[in-house]
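Subject line: Sequence and fold of a protein, written as structure tokens
Area: Proteins and the way their chains fold up in space.
Start of record: The labelled sequence and token lines come straight after this line.
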Amino acid sequence: MKIAGVVLAGGQSRRMGGGDKCLRPLAGVPLLRHILDRAAPQVEVIALNANGDPARFAAFRVPVVSDSVPGFAGPLAGVLAGLDWAAEQAPPCSHVASFAADAPFLPRDLVARLAAAIEGQDADLARAASGGRAHPVFGLWPIALRDALRRALADEGIRKVEDWTGRYHVAVAEWPTVPLDPFFNANRPEDLAIAERLHQDFRSATKLPDKK
């Protein structure tokens, strides 16, 4: 299974006060850098789903793909953008892994375990979970379903991830939440403050240097 990746950053970040949440700093570097450092090694190629002027992400040196469904249609629109991009730019890939742009501690084995879940459970799709809580934005999606997803978004107005994935057999890969939940996400300014403490605790425990 060859897998491409897409980081989902196409939302409006209202709870963070607007702007690009993924460009907010964590330990001196943008959140997006933490995401890419963990996600990119897991896939063949990776793109960023974001709307507006792509030039603001030039420093990250990744393709930027915007939603084809208008009106900030949510994470499913970002997944579709990633599927369309991979179909055109990464034809050897059969699946796309999606990553939230605000989860700086995402598992380094995320894609491998999602792929194993699909194969082991003979499923259509896979999603992550931790502590019994679903994380549908962290998923593995077959490119073959992109036209079905496009119809669901454009013709049926579906927006919730679970409303669409519920039509398919979805495998689940579960992670523990100790010593920390790898899917902790920074939705609000106070979450970034928590992430700073978690990052410092992790760095101290593993004797890792700060990123520069």
Notes: The helical segments are 31-39, 75-89, 110-121, 146-154, 161-165, 189-206. The first helix runs from residue 31 to 39.
